[in-house]
Structures are given as structure tokens and as C-alpha cells.
Write a structure and sequence with these properties.
By secondary structure, this protein is α/β, with parallel strands linked by helices. About 55% of the residues lie in helices and about 5% in strands. The protein is built from 18 helices and five strands.
Length: about 375
């Protein structure tokens, strides 16, 4: 299976025999560990086997390629300079011959140029030596989670062609994938959920039809789906990004669009995924659209996304208070943001959206007590 730097796909009913077979196959798959140091590769393989993940070791790139050709593996853990080949050359051969195998690199020091190129060519993650074994376990767990979701997507797409799989199944899987992407960084947890709520509130205040409001809500929920291809090191960086890192970060709308483009029933959400970083003055990306050239639904998500970004904690700054955030919104009218949508967003009070949602989730007796009830 080709795991996209745009190859996204979606879930399907658990009772599907095809899906069950996919997971049974995945459970049998192993991890291949490649390192020139026999103590390191043996220690990693022993740790993984002890934790219930079958693992074997290889001493050279050629030996690793031979083992990949012979057995069922879902992951290769390799140093950036393995014996026999460069790390990038090995990655290229693995992606070409075994696209279903993810690759995690380990290195004592990691150059950003290598990391960016490796990610573009399909690397999953990077671990800096010496790393804690629990850190390695976390990376492998994420690899399994992502692989499981992508397997569900592939199975769902195949079944959709034959059995008219309902949109609900596909939507559920995409939402699960979006939640996993948000969870990649402690600074973006629940970000897409908040953007969905803000977007729907704004669309409703505009008087748009209920089905459009729901479409905007879902578009906001999955708008960052393309960050499946953004390195964790960039998402978690405790400081401003370098120009090179910004180039990589700005690829996520195009990656997200590629994710959805092959799934017919998700086409209505594609503009919100691909165009939510377009700016009113034409300075945005990926297409540099100006004003109303950007579809209305994408402009709605843009306002919601911008507001949540400036009012959420980031590695390099604290969240803005409501009053200061409103000042920022007004300053960006006609530059980054649609001026009319921004004014309406300020008028309806974005903070009330989350308060309303929180109240709906609280026990009824607490709400009744606040109102003077029993």
C-alpha cells in the first residue's frame, strides 16, 4: 500500500472481512532494525520483542533489503548512515520496492536539510541518539496507529466501489485520522475540533443552509489533515520555524488535498482543506488567491483557524487574551482575513461557542442548580 505524503484514505465497518484480514496481516508484521553497532541493534530488537513487537536485526543496508524482500515488515528503523548505502538511497529503495513499510531514522545529530528531504521522500519519524526506549516505543505505536487507519481507509475505498459504502463510514475514519494528527503535538490537541465549532457558528450566523453549515463544520474538523506529512520535529519545535521549515509546513494544504482527491464522496470538503491558508490580499498559499477567488467556505474556516491559532498556546508564545485577539482580528481585516466575515465573527462572540458546548456536556443537575432549580 502506498502511504501518501498525500496517500490518505478512510475507515470502514469492523465487520468487513477484508478489513479484518488487513488487521490480522498487520499483527503478524515485524520491525527490522538496522544499525552498524551490534549492541545497539540487538538492544533495540530485544526491547521490541520483549514488548510484544516482533523484531529482527540487520547489520547492513543490503542485508536489510534482502530481509524486507523475504518477510512481512511494517517498519524499518535505521541510522541515517547505514553500512553499504546512504540513508536517503536506502529510503528511496524501500519506498520503491516496499511502499507499505514505514521508515524511522536514528542519528546522533540530524541536519535539517536531510530531515526535510527524507520527509519529502516518505520518512515517518526521526529519533536523536541516545534516545529513551520508551520514546522509541511511542514512535512505533504511532506508526501502528497510522498504518491501521490507512489500512482502514484503503479497505473502505475498495468497498465503496463495490458496495456503495455510506459517507458516514468514510467521514468517521477521516475524523479519526484528523484527531490523530492533532494529537501529534501537545500544542494542537483539539485544535480542529474548536475550528469546526467556530466555523459552524460563523456559517450559521451568515444564514447559510443547514446542510452548508454541517459541511463547513466537517471541513473545519479535517482542515489540517495534510499535517500527516509534517515532521513531528517541526510541529513540536520550541521556537519559530526557519525558512526551510516553513517551506515544509506550508505543504500541508496540498498534501491534504491530495488525501481527499481520490475519494469522491469527500470532494465537497476539498476547498476547505486545500485553501484555508489563502489570504484576502493574495499573499497566502498554496495558490495565492485574492479576495473572493477563495471559496466562501474556505474563507470561513480561515477566520476560525486564525482565531484559534492566536488564542492557543504555542511552543514559542503564550495564547492571546480575548481582547487582544479581537484587536488582532480587526488588524487583519482586508489583509489576511475576509473583512465582512471577520466583523461578523467578532460580533457573534467566538468564546461563546465553546462555553455553549461545555454547558451541553455538563450534567443537567449542575445547569439546573445554576438556574435556581433543584
Amino acid at each position: 500500500m502506498e502511504r501518501g505524503r498525500g496517500g490518505c484514505e478512510v475507515a470502514e465497518p469492523a465487520e468487513s472481512e477484508e478489513l479484518e484480514h488487513a488487521f490480522r496481516a498487520e499483527a503478524r508484521e515485524r520491525v527490522l532494525v538496522l544499525d552498524a553497532d551490534p549492541a545497539i541493534r540487538s538492544s533495540i530488537a530485544y526491547f521490541l520483542n520483549h514488548r510484544g513487537t516482533p523484531a529482527v536485526a540487520a547489520a547492513s543496508a543490503e542485508a536489510a533489503l534482502e530481509q524486507l524482500a523475504e518477510g512481512s515488515f511494517f517498519l524499518l528503523i535505521t541510522e541515517t548512515l547505514p553500512p553499504g548505502l546512504s540513508g536517503l538511497e536506502l529510503l528511496s529503495r524501500v519506498r520503491a520496492r516496499h511502499p507499505e513499510v514505514d521508515v524511522i531514522f536514528t542519528a546522533g545529530s540530524l541536519e535539517i536539510a536531510f530531515a526535510l528531504r527524507a520527509v519529502r521522500e516518505g520518512a515517518l519519524d526521526f529519533l536523536r541518539k541516545p534516545f529513551e526506549l520508551d520514546e522509541l516505543a511511542h514512535s512505533i505505536r504511532r506508526a501502528r496507529e497510522r498504518r491501521g487507519l490507512l489500512l482502514r481507509v484503503v479497505a473502505a475505498e475498495k468497498l465503496a466501489e463495490r458496495t456503495r459504502l455510506t459517507e458516514e463510514h468514510v467521514r468517521d475514519a477521516i475524523v479519526a485520522l484528523a484527531a490523530m494528527i492533532d494529537a501529534k503535538s501537545r500544542f494542537t490537541r483539539s485544535h480542529s475540533e474548536r475550528v469546526a465549532s467556530y466555523s459552524a457558528r460563523l456559517a450559521s450566523a451568515m444564514g447559510l443552509a443547514p446542510e452548508v453549515v454541517q459541511r463547513v463544520r466537517f471541513g473545519g474538523r479535517i482542515h489540517d489533515i495534510g499535517k500527516i506529512g509534517t515532521p513531528d520535529a517541526i510541529l513540536e519545535k520550541p521556537g519559530p520555524l526557519t525558512p526551510e521549515e516553513w517551506v515544509e509546513m506550508r505543504r500541508h494544504p496540498a498534501i491534504g488535498a491530495e488525501c481527499l482527491r481520490g475519494m469522491g464522496i469527500l470532494q465537497p470538503y476539498l476547498p476547505m482543506v486545500e485553501l484555508h491558508h489563502e489570504n484576502w490580499d493574495g499573499s497566502g498559499y498554496p495558490l495565492g488567491l485574492r479576495g473572493e477567488e477563495t471559496p466562501l467556505e474556505a474563507r470561513i474556516v480561515k477566520v476560525a483557524d486564525y482565531y484559534d491559532a492566536i488564542t492557543s498556546r504555542r511552543p514559542y508564545r503564550e495564547p492571546l487574551a480575548l481582547g487582544k485577539a479581537i484587536d488582532y482580528l480587526r488588524a487583519e481585516r482586508g489583509r489576511l482575513l475576509d473583512p465582512d466575515l471577520t466583523e461578523l465573527f467578532i460580533e457573534i462572540g467566538p468564546e461563546r461557542v465553546l462555553r455553549d458546548r461545555a454547558r451541553r456536556r455538563r450534567p443537567e443537575f449542575e445547569i439546573a442548580r445554576e438556574r435556581g432549580g433543584a
